[in-house]
Amino acid sequence: MLRINDVLDNAQTYLTSEELEMIRKAYIYSATVHQGQVRLSGEPYLTHPMEVAGILVDMKMDSATIISGLLHDTIEDTLTTREQIEQEFGKDVAFLVSGLTKLSRISFGSQEERQAENFRKMILAMSADIRILIVRLADRIHNMRTLKYQTAQRKIYIARETMDVYAPLANRLGINWMTMELEDLSFQYLSPDAFNEIASRVAKSQESRNRYTEEVKGIIFGELEKVSIQGEVEGRAKHLYGIYRKMQEQHINFDEVYDVIAFRIILDSSADKTCYEALSIVHALWKPVPGRFKDYIAMPKANNYQSLHTAVIGPYGERVEIQIRTRTMHEWAEKGIAAHWRYKEGRAFQDHEDNQIKKLREALEVQQDIKNPREFMSNLKMALFPDEVYVFTPHGDVKSFPKGATPIDFAYSIHTDVGHQCTGAKVNRNIVPLRYQLQNGDMVEIITQSGHHPSKDWLKFVVTSRAISKIRNWINAEEKNRSLALGKDLLDKEFKRNNLKFAACLKSDEIRKLLKDYSLLTIDDLISQVGYGRISSRQVVNYFVAQETPKETEKLPEKEKKKPAAAPSLGISLTGIDDVMVRFAKCCNPIPGDEITGYISHGRGITVHTQNCPHLQKLDIERIVEVNWDLRQKHTYPVHIKVVCTDRKGVLTEVSSAITSLDVNISFAQVETTDMIANCIFIIDVYDTQQLNAVFSAVRQLKIVRSIERISKA
């Protein structure tokens, strides 16, 4: 168990005696309030905040952050209040501890919702002070180190959350050692068989790998000395999850992973040009592998990582990966934000650290608009943080995007309105499709048009969480407006049919019962659910009809008596929904006799499809309603047919005559001929499938006809 004296001995190398005394005070306070509490391992609970504080000291964090590490569970797990923390340790520490406190005392509908809301809270607090995230990462590191004491189900849940969110967050802050440890610890529980196999293979080859490492290091160091370039050369095995990820991405086995060992050349010189000089020496020694060079000095990663990466054919024909960087770059690569900690005059970071924090905040804060917990977590994971491409604005500014980003993603990175109004794009002065994938070095220009709106199709190819979030927000707002309008129309008509007034019923006790039964918060929620088709207007009316139906002896107004029953629209009867606009889908053109399904389209009533229509599979299942044919009225319906015939003079006339002989109208006819085959396309108006079958029988009797079929459209 880590002792407070160990923490203080480590911290005294960079903190004042007054700060050390406050850390000791926080230790005593934490020990007092956590007294009697134990961890699942059976150890006193105090061991956890002590380990967290130890990690923060190793990272050379300031005293307020270390104190917050010692106290981070006090508000959540004890009777301590924020006011007490502030009184004992000041506003700064109280703010940090409050930001670290999970929403454990609030009731949530699901574990997913709880998880999403806790991350929302962390992101909001982190926006004000990034130290909250650093303490949370240190907390997660120790929890992962002791994960073996959790139940099997909790192990998987916590490991998955760590791999999907916490490890990428550490990577975004540039804390390399933390990223690797979190990934390896998660990997151990998520894929134990693969973890054990790779760990065993790495251990078995360690002796020969060590000899090879020393040989390569010696060669590189000797060549650098010849040209008076000072520095050191490191060589060590990649972390286990890094090896596994490469095996999965490249579909190779362990023996084919050529860069199990990664070499680093760390230069004493602070000049960037020295890195390029060292690169030329490496390439002069060994032949570089084409396509494997990456310049992260000229184009830093999103987490501000800088280095030159190359792969060469080294001694004995082995491929070797080499990274070249200055000591300053190396310190950032390993420690990230914590490498240049500043806390002066109320500001936690300066210069490039500010830019780095700004990037992270922008990437995460855009998620706050997303209400659905599942969508929030999905987008949060997407924001954390794929491979990148670098492109230029027309003014020469560099912007980085995830691999696969499109001009739409670029447009939303400039401004939401630019994204919404984007109608086209030029890349390197050439017009490109909006789904074009940006490449390194592209110069991108966005074409906009005032009044233009996002398309739902954009969601099929945009990749940045900002673009996805903004497009979804706009579409959801539009759909809600349409569903409210349609829902109100449906409810007004249904209430009117039952001699009720919808507006008057909104003040009754029944409406409160209705909202409670369907777990809805507001009347607008109810109306939109009806508009979406998730609740039928008939279901709503049933809450009021028993109480409000006029007595049998009560005479209805004369006008009501004379009013005929509402006729079903276009020969369709709708289950639970009457008197609503009906139209037929042009993709499948259903006719009586076909099995059909209704789909509530915003602002356009019910669209009727055949049940085997392929487009139906792509639609929102929650808006599908049951519909049936009402055969009391006769209507004609358009049907598209294709007749394949042997080509000869008058073929179109001959087929048309066979159709019209059955008193069937032809509204469109067209013929195309190729290789003595005539393809005739017709749109005919029929009453039902029975009449259509009669047409098919008549046409098939023609000697020139090879086949006839019904098609989706002409």
Number of domains: 6
- Largest sheet, described in full? 6 strands, mixed
Q: Can you count the beta strands?
A: 21
CATH architectural grouping of the largest domain? Orthogonal Bundle
**Roughly how many Å is the radius of gyration?**
35 Å
**End-to-end C-alpha gap:** 78 Å
Mean pLDDT: 80
Question: What's the level 1 CATH class of the largest domain?
Answer: Mainly Alpha
In percent terms, what proportion of residues is strand?
15-25%
Indicate the structural class: alpha+beta
Any descriptors?
Beta Polymerase, domain 2; Ubiquitin-like (UB roll); four-stranded mixed sheet; single chain; 28 helices; 714 residues
Topology readout:
Blueprint: H1 4-11, H2 17-33, H3 47-58, H4 63-71, H5 74-77, H6 82-89, H7 91-100, H8 111-128, H9 131-145, H10 152-172, H11 176-190, H12 192-204, H13 206-226, E1 231-237, H14 240-250, E2 261-267, H15 272-285, E3 287-288, E4 294-295, E5 308-313, E6 319-326, H16 327-335, H17 352-365, H18 373-382, E7 388-392, E8 398-402, H19 407-414, H20 416-420, E9 422-427, E10 430-432, E11 444-448, H21 465-497, H22 502-505, H23 509-517, H24 523-532, H25 537-548, H26 558-562, E12 572-574, E13 582-584, E14 596-601, E15 605-610, E16 624-625, E17 627-629, E18 637-646, H27 651-660, E19 665-674, E20 677-686, H28 689-700, E21 705-711
Parallel strand pairs: 2-6, 13-15
Antiparallel strand pairs: 1-2, 3-5, 4-5, 5-6, 7-8, 9-10, 9-11, 12-17, 14-15, 14-16, 18-20, 18-21, 19-20
Helix pairs in contact: 1-3, 2-4, 3-4, 3-9, 4-7, 4-9, 6-7, 7-9, 8-18, 9-10, 9-11, 10-11, 11-12, 12-14, 19-21, 21-24, 21-25
